[in-house]
Amino acid sequence: KCQEATGSGNRIIQGDNLEALKSLLPQYEGKVKCIYIDPPYNTGEEKWKYNDNVNDPRLLKWLQVNVGKEGEDLSRHDKWLCMMYPRLVLLHRLLRPDGAIFVSIDDNELGHLQLILDEIFGTANRISNFIWEKRTNRENRKEVSYRHDYILAYRKDSNALGAKVRLLTMTPDALARYKNPDNDPRGPWKSDPATAQAGHATASQFYELMAPIGKKHTLPSGRCWVYTEDIMNGEIDAGKIWFGSDGNGVPRIKTYLHSKERGLVPETLWFANDVSTNEGAKNELKEIFDGQAVFETPKPHELIHRVLEIASEKDSIILDSFAGSGATAHAVLNLNKQDGGNRKFILVEMMDYAESITAERVRRVMQGYGEGKKAVEGTGGAFDYYTLGQPLFNADQNLNEAVGTERIREYIWYSETRSPLPASAPAANGKAARGKGLANNPYLLGTHEGMALYFVYEPERLTTLDHELLATLPVKGAPTLIYADNCLLPKKFLEQHGIVFKKIPRDISRF
């Protein structure tokens, strides 16, 4: 249910993320480019706002229904896995073929998380296990001071076009290494070693190198030249090998700035100086909320900014189903402002602070916050705020007809086509159409891959597929799928006319 409608394409959803992810499938399956989640770490710390020992009443209820009585006897790790597994399966479905997921975690569940990600995404799709320096000071209260967390990253399909992570924009420090002391017409360059480890070298990479001034250069032990002798001499003649300003230096390869437009390869260590810390995130959140400490464990938006840099494009959809303080939206808005992008965010948060903290932070980032020298200009933008409505199915897996006909129609179409119900679909009016054309039939949901799909549903009465009903549907031998409560047409007749009948899953005892 939409509480704030802007049509911006950005969404914040309050409610259980398992149900929210299911509700996103009809519109977003296979469309999300980048997912970042910061699930509970399962440390057992009761004081956390996001119930981190997995004893939230809603989760316990879910365990009772989906795992059964044995769920009450599971260990803490088992419960955490039971919570995470179905959510990760849904997240996998929502990703584009070239999409990627990044999951923050610490030592408590690192091993278990990697196992289920390997199972769901496949080991061939593992990108890396990034290490984030979450703090810069030593924590003397504990036996060992933990200064890092992990971010496990997986692709959906490593063979999909565009699935590789993007390279980072070159930093000012990296750019400063490029100079042009010899006025090379190819522009600024930096020097890189002309030798490499010799373990996999061929015989052609071992030779005595002659510099232009006549000095001979021999290889250090265990090294080989990067190029064969013929290629190396060609590079020397082209002025692409540097022997120092006096020509007597150790030969080095000139790497040109213009060849580095692709940027920098991301490294597995993400340092606090580049992506901030937990403490930095808490301090910034205080600035956003006028000095109030409203959230104990926020992630820095700079950390998620790094994720988006390497795993999103300017028009990507970004999803965070453990939204917490809203840092993911903050990162999306900042990056859009920085590069002129049009990324869209979807946040899901189940806790009561979804409106007062998560959504409120996003509003303040959009509008700007702080005063005087500490004022931060707003990013602009808008979002729609949603709460979850009634479930589509009740406990006995019958349709919950209280959700309304349109939602049921949307689900039936999605279950058959894995796509959203077309806007051109005729609106349901609860009345049978007599003698009208295909486009105006109220039971028609649409056509998909040459098959017409009818949902013959009436909230207050049972429907039956018989000759009388069939006469109202413009079926002319083309493949046709018809949902109704009952069917009186013989199976052979249906086969001869290319008709498939499916029974509507609802409780008919009330009729």
Characterize the structure shown:
With 511 residues, this protein is of the alpha/beta class. The chain has helices at residues 17-28, 57-66, 76-94, 110-121, 172-176, 229-237, 272-275, 278-288, 301-311, 327-339, 353-367, 405-417, 467-472, 491-496, and strands at residues 2-4, 11-14, 32-37, 95-105, 126-133, 148-155, 189-193, 195-197, 209-210, 216-217, 223-225, 241-242, 252-256, 269-270, 317-320, 344-349, 368-369, 376-377, 384-387, 444-448, 451-455, 464-465, 480-484, 486-487, 499-503. It is globular.
How would you briefly describe this protein structure?
This protein is α/β, with parallel strands linked by helices and 511 residues long.
Give a topology summary:
Layout: E1 2-4, E2 11-14, H1 17-28, E3 32-37, H2 57-66, H3 76-94, E4 95-105, H4 110-121, E5 126-133, E6 148-155, H5 172-176, E7 189-193, E8 195-197, E9 209-210, E10 216-217, E11 223-225, H6 229-237, E12 241-242, E13 252-256, E14 269-270, H7 272-275, H8 278-288, H9 301-311, E15 317-320, H10 327-339, E16 344-349, H11 353-367, E17 368-369, E18 376-377, E19 384-387, H12 405-417, E20 444-448, E21 451-455, E22 464-465, H13 467-472, E23 480-484, E24 486-487, H14 491-496, E25 499-503
Parallel strand pairs: 2-16, 2-19, 3-4, 3-15, 5-14, 15-16, 21-23, 22-24, 23-25
Antiparallel strand pairs: 1-19, 4-6, 5-6, 7-13, 8-11, 9-10, 12-13, 17-18, 20-21
Helix pairs in contact: 1-3, 3-4, 9-10, 10-11
